[in-house]
Amino acid sequence: MKLLWTRRARNDLLEIATYIARDKVEAALNWVDKLQERAEKLVNAPRAARIVPELERDDIREAIVGNYRIVYRIEPDRLVVLTVFEGHRLLKNAIGQLDDDVE
Predict the structure, then answer these.
(1) pTM tops 0.85
(2) DSSP per position, 40-64
(3) Nearest to 61, CA basis, from 75, 51, 53
(4) Do the domain assignments include residue 53?
(5) Residue 72 CB partners (closer than 8 Å, separation 6+)
(6) How many structural domains compose the chain?
(7) Is 84 among the domain residues?
(8) For residues 83 and 70, what is the distance between their CA atoms, to the nearest angstrom?
(9) Domain limits at 31?
(10) Which of these, 4, 34, 38, 84, could form a disulfide with 12 (CB 3.0-4.6 Å)?
């Protein structure tokens, strides 16, 4: 199974890094690494993470890393990270806009 990131998910990582780097650059790099590593591990067991409560779709799942939610879609031969955001926020209704935005 192949891991892909949408443009939005990549921008999310950049925004997270930029925000954290205001206080400490090294911490920002470490968080982005953690998020990317967790996404890479999902390829081995994509259904191990929970179904996104806001969507209740078996193919859209999320992994929690600290305060962040990694939301991804499971496809037959790939796992697509749709977005990464702070866990206290609800998933926006933009999933349809993210479907074709794979890099």
Answers:
(1) yes
(2) HHHTTSTTSSEEPTTT--TTEEEEE
(3) 51
(4) yes
(5) 39, 42, 46, 49, 60, 61, 62, 63, 79, 80, 81, 82
(6) 1
(7) yes
(8) 6
(9) 2-98
(10) 84
Does some domain include residue 103?
no
H or E stretch covering 16: helix 7-21
One-letter amino acid of 32: V
Q: What is the CATH number of the domain that holds 44?
A: 3.30.2310.20
Answer whether residue 30 is part of any domain. yes
Given a contact cutoff of 8 angstroms between Cβ atoms, the answer to whether 69 and 87 are in contact is yes
45 vs 19: CA distance, rounded Å: 30
Amino acid at position 24, single letter: K
Instruction: Print pLDDT tens along the chain (103 aa).
Output: 999 999 999 999 999 999 999 999 999 999 999 999 999 999 999 999 999 988 889 999 999 999 999 999 999 999 999 999 887 776 664 454 555 565 5
